[in-house]
Amino acid sequence: MGNETVDNLATPEYTPQLQAFRQVLESRRSVRRFTDTPIPDDVLTDCLRLAMLAPNSSNLQPWEFYVIDSADKRKRAVKNCMNQNAAKTASRLIAVVARTDIWHEHAQQILREYPDKPVPKKVKNYYAQIVAMDFIRGPMNVISVAKWGATQAIRQVKGPIKSPYYTFDDVKNWATNNTALAAENLMLALRAHGFDSCPMGGFDEPAMKQLLGLGGNHHIVMMIGAGERADNGIYESQFRFDQTQLVHHV
């Protein structure tokens, strides 16, 4: 689109969507205190559905959402969130979890549930072979060493190639990056429904994982408190650095 301005894009067919999108984005704040107004179940269900429409690598969807409904678990979860007001006053408290161990299971599920039948051969090959080679590491990362050597050779001969996942940390970064995209969708969906949220990174992850029965391949990316914004729910004025400081045209 070159140097077109936003106003150039505000043609009649785009204006209503653009205005609504701006309103949702610009009114979203990290709200620290909520009212007693509940989030209806159908609203939360729709927000979670929209969250899972987030873009993600190879549609492997390495995320889970734990809505903490139990009163006892809720009390303990608030404590694990350092008793933050955003957790204490929230109508709903949600753990957003990345999974590093379900790529293979989800790849097989994609082939079973693929909407176009028969499943195209290139799709079968991708999920049965390419995805497996991308993630598999082998005992003591022995396969990762072979993958590293093959990747370097291909770069020398054919040029750029996507780096596969060599280590557990590579897979964890992949899972958490994708899951964070879904978390943002969730927060924007809540705002579009007239509610607010607060993403919280300040929590005791080992204690929270124990509370939720999570294992070593579950990684809590953030806790989200959600509800209706209280009058004193926003603590500070919003500001961002100047765009020219952080956007680089190269």
From TrEMBL:
UniProt cross-references to InterPro entries, sorted A to Z: Nitroreductase (IPR029479), Nitroreductase-like (IPR000415)
Residue ranges occupied by any Nitroreductase domain in the UniProt entry: 26-115, 173-227
Key word Flavoprotein present: no
GO MF term set: oxidoreductase activity
Entries under Gene3D superfamilies matching the protein: NADH Oxidase (3.40.109.10)
Pfam families on file: Nitroreductase (PF00881)
Keywords: Oxidoreductase
Domain of life: Bacteria
Protein family membership: Belongs to the nitroreductase family.
Protein name according to UniProt: Nitroreductase
